[in-house]
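B., you asked whether I could sanity-check this one before it goes into the benchmark set. Here's the sequence:
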Amino acid sequence: MSLIKKLPDAIANKISAGEVVQRPASAVKELLENAIDAGANEITLVIKDAGKTLLQVIDNGCGMSDEDAVMSFERFATSKISDVGDLETLHTLGFRGEALASIASVAQVEMKTKRRDDRTATLVKIDGGVMQTVEKTQAADGTSVSVRNLFFNVPARRKFLKSDATEFKHIYEIIQAQALAHSDIRWTFISDGDEVFRLDSADVLERLNVFFGKDFSKGLLEISETNDYLSLHGFLGKPAMMKRTKNEQFLFVNGRITQNRMLSHAVAKGYGELLGEREQPFFLLYLTIDPRHIDVNVHPSKMEIKFDDERNVYAMVNSVVRRAVSGMDVSPAVTLEEKPSSVVRRTDEHTFAGASKRLSYNDRSTEVRSTNALYAEYKQAAEMFRAEPQRTVGKESGNVASAVAPNVSEPQTSEELFETAAPAAPKTYQVIYQSTDGAEERNPTDRFLWQLHNKYIVTQIKSGLMLIDQHVAHERILYERAVAVMNADIPNSQQLLFPHRIELKPWEEEILKTIKPDLERLGFTMRVFGGRSILIEGVPPDVRPGSEEKILQELLEQYQNYAETLQLEQRDNIAKSYACRSAIMAGDKLSHREMNVLIDQLFATSMPYVCPHGRPIVITLSLEELDKMFGRT
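And here's what the prediction gave me:
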């Protein structure tokens, strides 16, 4: 008896569905591509319960005959390919002939389709891959496909769907990208009976203003380049629009939504030093190229693409971006000779998980100290430095003037970055941001602390040297404070003299509904102003004045990213998102007093060595190691 058997179509279709239909957004993408390929100039998407209960795509395209309507649900049935050569000259979005068969195998599907010259339409109903009905009906020209109860017959897959807010965000991003890729099509998106957006204008800039704010397009640089190999047109975001995620990066190749790390890297390198640490630029790029020079058949989702001459494409994109950015007179030139990296390094939280375990100071058991011991070393060294008479290098020695500045009083301001607080009481910690004027404090202890490249704090300890990453140190402090405040459920809001109005994106509104109670415990006071507008009337004391709107939106964005990539409890997610977005950044200049308070507050936390994501905060270097480096032993 043979051990190998051919799978029945019903099972094969469900396996195939795992590649094509991973979530409601996957089905939306396939159906929208079919509608575009049908020549539609009007497309409507209707969903209920983030596509779990219903997703419907209605178009006014060419429609199908009875025979084609039934055949479209067969595996590998397509109108877009007739021979192998067609794979090299694809001009359509769909081509595999698996989408409808895969969707129908894991849902209850109803299709109505009518050609313009036909008097009646065709109705096809399929339940879990089994054909139920094929009959005549009345319908408008074009095609309407309704997908109900996705994964109803695959409970395990349905169980692993994310929250409605997450699934809605994925669907929103798909139709948003298609609307930007095909501005000649009028788009309507309806969710749970509410119109999310209606796009009638073919102006891409107007569509960007709808998606990202009414003045968004004013911050864009337009670029354009054409040669014998490809044509490139699009828009780049100015430095003020930098984000820490890639959610606002759009790349279309021959009208196809595409992901390509190589091209994303080329754009980022084109910004040069304008791109801060872990910052991502906005870009919207349209590439037109001969289909023979690309391969779109490298992944089941058709989201990835390969070029036959990646080096040439990289160089062109990088050059165009570099020239456009350099034209703003704020960016240094970036050489074109630099070769694209074959590996793009990840910089998200997963990269740093457990990083502290690999640090050398934790590998030597004889040097492991408690938090209190290390902090005591720091304070002891500071006291010794304060009490020690300061020697100067006189002019008679032939050196430059005094190496130690005279002791002058520290200037007092009302806009200190940190408010002094006892180390044992981190809950009283408050951040009040200032703009430093470059004045140098002259206390003896001030010479005990240094800020390296406005990023790291360097200080002496009894046994050697201690370096602190200011951003992740502040992130640890804010995280523990946020957790404590939310758990204690005590008032923590600083009321604003003038409320700030903010317009939320649809997916931001869904997230806010879910986490609003805990945000209010944290200190955000908000009320609905109408539609998706809210008024921010109060914020936590740590929020920088003038950044209230930005912090809230970035918190929602970071919360969504963590919800998708990490398994976090809601309050823990909020605390980490808030700390990540509110902490001082690399590049922020600190006064000596601010550095002192930051270190005191850091060592008052429960875990001063790593940030909430696992990145190291503190590194120590012993005198013994320094002596070895300088050949003293």
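One thing to flag: DSSP finds 18 helices and 22 strands in the chain. Otherwise nothing jumped out at me.
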